[in-house]
Amino acid sequence: MHGHQITFFTQQDRMQGQQPLAQWLVDEARRLGLRGATLNGAIEGLGHDGAIHTINMFDLSDQPVQVTLVVERRLFAHLLERRVSLFYVKVPAQFGTLGDVSPGHGRPHTG
Predict the structure, then answer these.
(1) Counting CB atoms within 10 angstroms of each CB, which of 3, 6, 50, 78 has the fewest?
(2) Tell me, what DSSP letter sits at residue 109?
């Protein structure tokens, strides 16, 4: 299949409604029927505005966060409808699956 790999960059304290923006993106991907999303937190990052964003032992709110998805066009239309403001990188991707990726595959049977 062909689509795009998109990585969104944000901070832990950015919100979409009552939810952290990064988690909201993962939840929206699930709701839209997208087949995968990965949320990663970083120790430090340089924002597109030139500011350093970092975590410390007492405050995680400025932690850099990225969400990576492999998608088709409908996600962008959805984000534009919701007026989401967010920096991203989008690259063409060919994707698929190898082997049996059904839930529980490769785990010992306990029944």
Answers:
(1) 50
(2) P
- Please provide the size of the chain in residues: 111
What was the pLDDT predicted at 111?
Answer: 47
DSSP letter string, 7-38: EEEEETT-EETTEEHHHHHHHHHHHTT-S-EE
List of residues 6+ apart from 42 with CB closer than 8 A:
63, 64, 65, 66
Task: For the chain, state the CA radius of gyration.
Answer: 16
Residue pointed to by tokens 């403001």: 85
What does the pLDDT look like over 64-98, one tens digit per residue? 999 999 987 788 889 999 999 999 999 999 988 88
Rounded CA gap, 79 and 58, in Å?
Answer: 32
Structure tokens at 57: 């032992």
Residue 108 is given by DSSP the state P
